[in-house]
Structure formats: structure tokens, C-alpha cells
Amino acid sequence: MPVQVNDIMSLLCHISDHQKMKAAVKHSGKGALVAGAVAFLGGLMGGPPGIAVGGAVGGLLGAWMTSGQFKPIPQIILELPSVQQQKLCEGVYAIIRNLDWTDASQLIMLVMGNASLQQKVTAALISYVTQELQAEIQYGD
Length: 141
Fold this sequence. Notes:
About 70% of the residues lie in helices and about 10% in strands. It is mainly α. The longest helix has about 40 residues.
């Protein structure tokens, strides 16, 4: 059976939605750039004390800008380019290749009904998101 990307993507969306998984790509570079820019402006306006104040304000602003940028994993994986979706699906297919399903709903039912299989598919999804997308995962609301 060839890899059925749409069925596997539906399965991954269901599992990640069921577990309320969210992810955020780390944007530490953007926060550092903001902190540095505000420190620089503070230095131009207030000399050495301005650098200190600007650095503190810029650090807080940079931290605020990069926090809370978590998006639901179903949204993230559906927005992936088809090449990355294919790679993700091939990794999951290696786990579920022995299953016989006709459509996405049957695949979801088979995987969700087997705790061990569900755990393996979830682990593959988490591994892909953290390693390939270099994202941080959060559970719950």
C-alpha cells in the first residue's frame, strides 16, 4: 500500500488535537535583535545610563514579543510544504504499515484503539516537530 498522506495527516491532526498539543518555533534571535536595538537607541539618547535602561527595556520587550507564539500542531503540520508532509508521513507509515485501513476515519479508529500504537505515532510526531521544525511543544490550553 502506498503512503496515503491525507489519511496519515488526518490521523496526526486528530492525535495532536486530542492531546491539545501546541508548538512554537524558537525566535530567540528576534528577541535579541530587539533588545540590542533598544539598547543602542537608549545609548544614543542617554549615553551610558541610556544603554543600561535601553537594554533592560529592550530585553523585556524582546521577551514579551517572543512569548505566547504557540500554534496548534494540526495547524502547523497542515501548513507544511508537501515535501515536509511527505517526510513526516513516511516516518509514521513505518509504524502503521502493518495496519489495513480504507480511509482516514478507519485509520484513526485503529490507532486510537491501540494505546501502544497511539504512543508510537505520538512519539514520531513529537520527534519530527522538535527535531525537524526545532519547535517547543506545549500541552493543554
